Inverse folding.
């Protein structure tokens, strides 16, 4: 152990009073932050582009917190997270639009989908039911992708999940040719559109985005609160401890009674479920589900949010996701191009996105590799080189 | 639950059951490619005894340990614990049945505190799953709270100072890390405890304290202990029986005095004379 760590350990107040004070201060800060974010759109016009950007940022935060469970808590590097965005968004497309309809057919299924969908053909489920379907579909998909990676570790998991994400994208692009009971699986790059406007119990149908963005913002915000709650509860639970133990030393963890397969699959399923939830929301918010949305770069964007904020650190991931979302939507896609045009430079600024993110990540790795708001454990791992046992139980047992 | 899980401290002494070995291993062989690490070892651990496995470096002791605790599957042979065949069980299932272990090179979860490490050891006895962890009904909150209290008591039982309980485990002294590892194993309510070189790196006083502690565990908590150990003073001080491995084979077995006089054992340790 280094002398610095020793000194820091001595300086840290371990007596209960100090810790309790810190916990209360943390709760007050969290409550103030939540209140601030909740009233934020009231300071902007109903359809301000800032509110639009923020709504998407909130949806991205949900995804980043989902990925944080897989990568941050359980230490399983997932490069195919976009697949769950796709599953979620297509759930919305399939069960919340006039997509499944045959020429001349009047067949329709309508379950509490609100007055807008009344009398329309196709399958129309209530928004919350679609979200539930997306969560279940993605949890199952998460387990299916998890199964072949169980015997792998580190970089190999990354390769398999990357391939899985690409398979889903390619299937989505070519979905027009895939016919199930005579219906096309996806409509490829044409996209499924329009998606139903969500109708919430007790509120009614949300206004159209061109008219008022605030309810959409609050809907996304409610999802963020739910995911935050789940993240915090899981972190401080039996399961959260098991994930951290598995991440640090799989051999020791299984010898202490933690079932490796079940524990890992639960991480995959939970993380995927939130990807699907956010994907379904984005499908409804953007009103289209298009195979172009599910590029590999999206997985990297979400992963970069988790790494920028601090792997495993819940508030860090929220911060990282917020920062990168705004850079992506506001600076790269709006401010940047306008600025370049004013300067008379004629290049496609959206193509600079990767350069900007790459540069940011390199700067981070040099200045603050543990992330903006690092989790205590990750900090120790960086400073002391603790954990990351490299043996795999399956490897040992296979021989 | 099996009979074994309630045996800790509370088992009614049953003379018939006492005569049945707690663990039996028959004809265990483990091959890694062409290397035979353990060769046809047959072995039994009497209930409530302390049994040691000794042997020169590379004799296959730790491999044998890993087979017993489920980390390796034996190439051949059968292992029975409390009369159940556990040969193909996973390590976590074997732990749940009541076998706990420590590691030769300490394998604590470095970024966790001492208490958290021990709480992980209680995993198999807890019930909260995914949904209960999220919703946290009163029963789960109580379970969590009790696990914490229990883990802290166990740490104090193995001799950790109060102020070390919430210390991150890599910041603990070597001796304390060994204690935390033993507490992590003990908290899972085992009936059989496997200790892999627990006195490695300890000074003579510490070794002696550990020896006394093992005897206390056997007598007060009705534990059975299997020990891998190099320190002959410790081995001869606590073991009722010794098994000697060399090149993966069992070359001697019996009471300490018999084994000490066995010419094959002397040869394995000191080389052939003359």
């Amino acid at each position: 152990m280094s002398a610095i760590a020793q000194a820091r350990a001595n300086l840290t107040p371990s007596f209960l009073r100090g810790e309790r004070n810190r916990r209360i201060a943390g709760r007050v800060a969290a409550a103030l932050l939540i209140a601030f974010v909740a009233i934020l759109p009231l300071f902007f016009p109903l359809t301000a582009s800032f509110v639009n950007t923020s709504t998407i940022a909130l949806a991205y935060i949900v995804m980043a917190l989902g990925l944080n469970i897989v990568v941050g808590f359980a230490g399983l590097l997932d490069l195919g997270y976009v697949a769950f965005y796709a599953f979620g968004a297509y759930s919305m497309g399939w069960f919340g639009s006039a997509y499944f309809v045959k020429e001349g057919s009047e067949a329709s299924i309508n379950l509490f989908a609100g007055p807008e969908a009344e009398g329309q053909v196709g399958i129309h489920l209530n928004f919350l039911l679609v979200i539930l379907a997306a969560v279940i579909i993605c949890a199952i998909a998460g387990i299916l992708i998890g199964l072949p990676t169980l015997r792998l570790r580190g970089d190999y998991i990354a390769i398999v999940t990357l391939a899985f994400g690409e398979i889903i994208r390619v299937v989505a692009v070519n979905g027009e040719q895939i016919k199930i009971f005579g219906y096309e699986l996806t409509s490829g790059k044409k996209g499924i559109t329009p998606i139903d406007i969500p109708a919430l119990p007790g509120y009614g149908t949300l206004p159209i985005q061109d008219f008022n963005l605030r309810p959409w913002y609050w809907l996304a915000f409610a999802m963020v609160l739910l995911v935050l709650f789940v993240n915090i509860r899981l972190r401080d639970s039996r399961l959260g401890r098991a994930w951290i133990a598995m991440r640090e030393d799989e051999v020791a963890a299984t010898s202490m009674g933690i079932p490796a397969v079940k524990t890992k699959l639960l991480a995959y399923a939970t993380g995927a479920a939130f990807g699907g939830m956010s994907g379904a929301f984005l499908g409804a918010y953007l009103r289209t589900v298009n195979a172009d949305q599910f590029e590999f770069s999206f997985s990297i964007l979400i992963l970069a949010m988790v790494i920028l904020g601090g792997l495993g650190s819940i508030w860090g991931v929220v911060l990282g996701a917020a920062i990168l979302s705004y850079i992506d939507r506001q600076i790269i896609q709006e401010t940047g191009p306008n600025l370049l045009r004013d300067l008379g430079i004629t290049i496609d600024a959206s193509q600079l996105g990767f350069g900007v993110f790459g540069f940011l990540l390199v700067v981070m790795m040099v200045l603050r590799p543990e992330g903006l708001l690092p989790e205590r454990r990750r900090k120790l791992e960086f400073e002391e080189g603790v954990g990351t046992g490299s043996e795999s139980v399956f490897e040992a047992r296979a021989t | 639950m099996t009979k074994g899980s309630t045996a800790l401290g509370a088992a009614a002494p049953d003379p018939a059951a006492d005569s049945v070995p707690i663990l039996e291993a028959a004809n265990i062989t483990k091959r890694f490619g062409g290397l035979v690490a353990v060769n046809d070892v047959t072995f039994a651990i009497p209930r409530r005894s302390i049994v040691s496995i000794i042997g020169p470096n590379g004799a296959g002791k730790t491999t044998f340990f890993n087979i017993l605790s489920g980390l390796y599957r034996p190439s051949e042979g059968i292992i029975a614990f409390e009369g159940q065949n556990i040969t193909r069980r996973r390590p976590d299932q074997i732990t749940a049945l009541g076998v706990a272990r420590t590691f030769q090179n300490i394998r604590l979860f470095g970024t966790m505190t001492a208490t958290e490490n021990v709480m992980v050891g209680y995993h198999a006895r807890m019930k909260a799953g995914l949904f209960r962890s999220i919703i946290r009904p009163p029963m789960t909150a109580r379970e969590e709270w009790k696990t914490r209290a229990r883990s802290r008591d166990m740490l104090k039982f193995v001799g950790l100072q109060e102020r070390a309980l919430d210390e991150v485990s890599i910041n603990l002294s070597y001796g304390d890390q060994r204690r935390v590892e033993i507490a992590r194993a003990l908290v899972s309510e085992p009936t059989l405890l496997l200790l892999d070189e627990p006195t490695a790196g300890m000074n003579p006083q510490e070794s002696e304290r550990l020896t006394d502690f093992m005897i206390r565990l056997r007598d007060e908590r009705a534990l059975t202990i299997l020990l891998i150990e190099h320190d002959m003073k410790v081995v001869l001080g606590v073991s009722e029986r010794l098994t000697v491995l060399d090149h993966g084979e069992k070359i001697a077995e019996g009471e300490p005095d018999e084994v000490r006089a066995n010419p094959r054992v002397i040869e394995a340790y000191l080389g052939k004379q003359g």
Summary: The CA atoms of residues 66 and 274 of chain A lie 5 Å apart. Chain A touches chain B at residues 1, 5-6, 9, 14, 229-230, 233-234, 237-242, 244-245, 248-249, 251-260, 266, 270, 376-378, 380-381, 384, 386-387, 389, 393, 396-397, 399 (CB under 8 Å).
